[in-house]
Structures are given as structure tokens and as C-alpha cells.
Amino acid sequence: MASYRHRDVILVRSPVNAFPGSFIFVAPDEDDDGIGDACDNCPAAANPNQEDGDQDGTGDVCDNCPTDYNPNQSDDDLDLAGDVCDNCPGIYNPNQEDYDMDDVGDICDNCPLVFNPDQADSNGDNQGDACDCDCGVKGDMDCSASVNPLDVTFIVNFVFKDWDILCDPPACPYPTGDVDCNGQTTPRDVALMVVYVFKNQDALCDGCNP
Hints:
By secondary structure, this protein is low in regular secondary structure. It is built from two helices and three strands. Helix 1 (149-161) packs antiparallel against helix 2.
């Protein structure tokens, strides 16, 4: 049968046993999946089975959030990840990378290497509490709000005599004695404290990226 396509209308020449020269109307089907565009839940992407897991009226193969109900398919940052499932809504990140798997994308995660889905940032420095060493005074072993020779004594006793005499601010995930921000208090921290207190060299960390 001969056919002619004009814009949104397809005319197919009727079979020979029909009225000679007549045509019949066939619903347009842009993706040729056997489902007419008017009722195809993905008119531009072939999906003959019409699967729609989240039942939002948009087929899985063309849904920008196939497992989350989003009938309007909104995508404000135009990264092809719908707003309801975008791990950084409002920031273009088509690859949706999330190293720490906390459902917050790396590009907008305030601790991209440390799991912190709540993104808590108690001191408002844009570095999450889970990776921020600057939530107390680093090296202030006795919580006196300053670092002095007494703190050196405390850290020596802590590291070499196993005395638990360090004070840790409750919001800080790392020990106050972790002055190099590697997640633990070690002899290296003792050396850095000595340099800081007795040689007046700023060897203490003020942030942390484990």
C-alpha cells in the first residue's frame, strides 16, 4: 500500500478491493513502535510495551525520573535529571556523581568525601560538620579556648600514656587533638603542637578533607 505523510497526518492508499483511489487515515506514530503518538507515553522514543513504573504518565524510557512520580517532568537545571530525583537540584550535573553515596551530589555536597545526608553545618562555613575540623579550637586539649604549653602536656599524655583527657566539642566529629585533620590523634599531632606552641608556627589545620 502506498502512503503519504504530511505533517501530523498519514494517509495510506486503501487496499485494491476498496474504493479505487481512496485513502484511509492512520494515526501518526513518530517512533514507529506501533503506538500512536496521541496515546504513546513516549511519542519520540520507541517503547511498544509502554512501561511506566512510577505511573506518572511518562514512559520509563523517556522519564527523567523513572522511579519517582513526576508528571510535569520539571528539570530546572536542564541536566536531564528531573528535579524530584536530581541529587543537586538547581545545579547542572548530568552525571549525578555522588562519591559518598549520601544522595547529595558531589558538586553541591558540603562533605563530598564523607557520608552526611543531613548536610549539617553548625558553624555556617559551608563545610559540613562531618568533615570540618574547625568546629572547636584545634589543639585546645583542655577547652580553655586557647592553645598553650599545658595543651602540649595533655596531648603527650594522651598519645603516649593513653590518658583520656582531651575535651571534644560535641559538634566536632574529629578529636580536638587531631591537629593535622587525618581523623586520629597520633605522635605527628604531638610534633605539630610543639611546633605551634613553642615555635609559633601555624601548623594546625583549620579545615578537614579526609
